[in-house]
Model the fold of this input.
Amino acid sequence: MGVNSAASHRRAQDAAHASREVIELLEVLWERGRDAVSSAPVSSSQLRVMYILDRDEGINLRTLGEVLGAAPSSVSRLCDRLHALGFVERSPSQVSRRELQLRLTARGKAYLRDLRSRREVALLNAIDGMPASARTALIEGLASFRSAVEEAPPIRVPGRSERSSRTA
Done:
């Protein structure tokens, strides 16, 4: 490894470390506001399901399981809990009577809307304290990060199956 590639690798490691720290700070920030959002908080796995259903309305359990990289029984239990909270509804598929379509209910959509609004306010409060040049750099950096994530191949962890590496 040459000097330039070593320095580049070190900068990538520094960025990964800083990103991990920001994610941990966001988790703490989100947890602080969790009780204020609803009397029916959801787990991070359930919230991920809600985000997917918000984006891909009408998805079936099998496809949701593939997106999550989870076993059908786990996906079914997640949806059972969300259904019990009144956040998800199941209906027969128009394509196949053997499949169920999953959709967020009005209550589920309202929960996500309120959660996103509260999170945005918390972020706005933090970002308002940044200098304009840092905000610009943040916007550009996050846009590049998002593109890199969207274009990246699936993560492969040595010694783990493909399914378990997606759920890690």
Summary: The radius of gyration is 19 Å. The mean pLDDT is 83. The helical segments are 3-37, 44-55, 61-68, 72-84, 106-128, 132-151, 162-167. Residues 5 and 147 are 22 Å apart (CA to CA).
